[in-house]
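Hi R.,

As promised on Friday, here is the backbone we talked about, encoded as structure tokens. Could you run it through your design pipeline when you get a chance and send me back a sequence?
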């Protein structure tokens, strides 16, 4: 089915009102780290522990996840807008100056407020995206952390609680 440009523009504008957290999905190709910014991330299942991420079919990171079979979701904290913008660019040197640990076969960002290391359980078709269902093999988080948010095409933060 085809859709008009207008429908796509309205859909994108309406979806931009869905405030989300911001994550960097990381994986590797051979010895090189790979990563991209993503907002399409969701918890999926408690038994087994699973989450899902939606990645554009044409993206370099999509092919890298499919090939490596493991990825990490790195949840960004308040103030990490530069990291989010860096990993939203399609370029080869995204990890320059970015501190990571690699205890589980994929890079985990030192600045993440939570991280989930996953093995690919399923790669499902989702239109022009692929829905990767991941079995969570490790997760960690920082207590007292605050998230980076994405809303209406811009980055923001939670207002301080009263
Ligand atoms: C806030 C934000 C959220 C994004 N969320 C997603 C997402 O959920 N899925 C996706 O495929 N691309 C998403 N993108 C776009 C990718 O980050 C972008 O296409 C990136 O260049 C892909 O990296 P790669 O080309 O190195 O694979 C998002 C971008 C931004 C700025």
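Update: got your reply. Pasting your designed sequence below so it's all in one thread:
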């Amino acid at each position: 089915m085809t859709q008009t440009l207008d429908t796509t523009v309205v859909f994108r504008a309406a979806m931009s009102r869905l405030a989300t957290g911001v994550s960097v999905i990381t994986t590797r190709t051979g010895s090189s780290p790979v990563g991209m910014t993503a907002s399409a991330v969701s918890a999926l299942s408690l038994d087994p522990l699973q989450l899902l991420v939606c990645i554009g079919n044409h993206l370099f990171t999509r092919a890298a996840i499919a090939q490596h079979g493991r990825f990490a979701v790195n949840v960004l904290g308040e103030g990490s807008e530069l990291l989010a913008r860096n990993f939203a660019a399609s370029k080869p040197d995204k990890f320059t100056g970015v501190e990571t640990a690699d205890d589980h076969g994929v890079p985990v960002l030192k600045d993440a407020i939570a991280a989930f290391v996953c093995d690919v359980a399923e790669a499902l078709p989702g239109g022009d995206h692929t829905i990767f269902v991941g079995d969570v093999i490790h997760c960690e988080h920082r207590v007292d952390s605050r998230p980076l948010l994405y809303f209406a095409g811009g980055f923001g933060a939670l207002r301080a609680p009263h």
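One thing I noticed while checking it: The pocket of flavin mononucleotide is lined by residues 22, 36-40, 54-56, 59-61, 84, 88-90, 129, 150 (CB under 6 Å).

Thanks again,
M.
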